[in-house]
Predict the structure of 3-demethylubiquinone-9 3-methyltransferase, putative.
Amino acid sequence: MVSFGVLGTSTAVVLAALLFSRSRFNPTPYPDRLAVIKEEDTRIDNHLYDDVSWWDEEEIVYTLRKTNVIRCPFFHRHLSKGGKIPSKGRYLDVGCGGGLLTEDMASTYGYNITGIDISEASLRQAREHGRHIPNLHYQVGSAYDIPFPDDSFDGVIISEVLDHLMDLRKAIQEIYRVLKPGGVVVFDTISRNFKSYLLVWLIAQEILQVMYNDTHDWRLFITPEEMERLLSETGFVVGSPKEEWIGMDYEDIPFRLARYILGGMKQKHQVFEGNPVELPGDLSMIYGGVARKPQDSY
């Protein structure tokens, strides 16, 4: 005979599971991530970057610069020709924000690079911080309507942006348009799976609030398979993602989050202390990729 205690516990568990399944903490993926998604159907705030201090080392957004130790060499490896940058080469960083990546590509590697972003407030910070670098330029522009003619750039970077976009096809088509034949696009984004749901979205963002509110909508994350298909269908030549693309992440993320909790959840940036590591062939979380516009694209 089942006791009232066991019955009550079972009922509570069932009710809790039912409530969770119907809450915002159990998001249902979009039927087609590559289709146009209405902004009102998302839970992401792409305007929060108007109010952040990009170059303040205490700000959580500044931790993005730490990933440059992985991203910049990877991007340079594929954008350059055997490590050499064409003397008259032109490069574009789409969604550059405050210029954390753009500036490093210009100052460390010497790229003649232009960053575009929809946030004028972010661009003001980028211009001020990089004012001494002559090969670094910024202007307002959207990934959906890149303000340059066809065949303008030898290479395009789109980093930490794709998982914020509602019309991926339009953005990738625009990148294809402004690339010269033979030009290269490099990117990084976050894969949509249980690992990223649990660690990046549910625990880090929603529960512990290590990130700004509504920084990410897990449903907007993009699997490597979706990204490969999107690039191919746009006309890009994509090699072998398992061989040419890379993963990048911080080691021991669960331990870092536990330490943050035990420390009273006061120093958010400490979750990302130290540098991330490159994970060749592991595209299960943050991953970077590359594709090329064919020489005979007309």
